[in-house]
Specification:
flat; two-stranded antiparallel sheet; alpha+beta
């Protein structure tokens, strides 16, 4: 289901748009440039969608550990086959991009003192969280509009969440400037950022609403820790606990903290020691 662009280019374009939005939250000087590039990418997606076929069809899958013979593999489980109007995924990109372009342009550095400092005009928790939630909504919209494969796979939801999480690590570290409180707030952020995934995954599974968070078709899979086969009932709490709640509220937030904690620590050290070093150099 590749679009007019090769899948690797679509992956890079998607990542670039989200990375620039996240970077612009931290660096005010980049906001105008980021808004321009993100707007151009969204318009390109809309133009490609309008120039493409009148309708699109794609399979939506959920990936989890499963046995293949005696080995455990990361298996795609087909959730649904989606058919949508050909222009729909391009319109989804515009609905995401235009408000963010306006937001970034409205918070470009002005003439006021301190207007260009890192993170100026953006709340260090709610700003990245809004980006994370809107990027997740865009990703689910891409799935429901049968977007080209490169916009959906691989790891589409993690693509949506990683850049905002990195921005949150930097912004919280710059604002708090203490390691332990920064880690605590960051742990709250990575959990709250995934709450919509857990909530929607629960609703989508029980009501069979589709998207890659609907796991109702996955009743036989592997426990990757004990390496044993699992068999659960569709829509049961056991199914949701293994496939939705534990990954999104426990395992993946923990994995994110392993890397984001290092980023936050580095930014705290820079924020605390760089001004002192500059003062010492100026005094010398």
């Amino acid at each position: 289901m590749a679009g007019p662009m090769p899948d690797p280019l679509l992956v890079l374009a998607h990542l670039l748009a989200l990375a620039l939005c996240a970077l612009a939250l931290v660096l005010p000087a980049w906001r105008g440039r980021a808004a321009t590039v993100v707007g151009v990418l969204a318009l390109a997606a809309a133009a490609a969608a309008l120039a493409g076929p009148a309708s699109r069809t794609a399979q939506v899958v959920f990936r989890f550990a499963a046995f293949e013979g005696a080995n455990i593999v990361w298996k795609p489980f087909v959730v649904e086959t989606v058919t949508a109007a050909g222009h729909a995924f391009g319109m989804s990109a515009l609905v995401f991009a235009l408000p963010w372009c306006a937001f970034l342009l409205g918070r470009r550095p002005g003439g006021a003192s301190g207007a260009g400092r890192h993170g100026a005009g953006v709340h260090p928790f709610w700003g990245p969280l809004l980006l994370a939630w809107s990027a997740v909504a865009l990703q689910l919209a891409f799935e429901k509009t049968a977007a080209p494969h490169g916009l959906v796979e691989p790891a589409g939801l993690e693509r949506a969440l990683l850049p905002p999480s990195l921005a949150a690590a930097a912004l919280l570290a710059l604002r708090i400037r203490k390691v332990l409180p920064t880690f605590l707030w960051l742990a709250v952020f990575v959990t709250v950022a995934r709450l919509p995934l857990a909530i929607w995954g629960t609703l989508a599974t029980r009501e069979q609403l589709g998207t890659s968070l609907d796991v109702h078709t996955v009743t036989r899979f592997a426990n990757p820790f004990a390496q044993v086969a699992m068999h659960v009932d569709a829509g049961s709490n056991e199914q949701l606990a293994w496939l939705v709640w534990a990954p999104n509220l426990l395992i993946l937030p923990g994995l994110y903290m392993l890397s984001l904690g290092g980023v936050a620590f580095a930014v705290v050290m820079w924020a605390v020691h760089a001004p002192r070093r500059r003062e010492e150099e100026a005094a010398a």
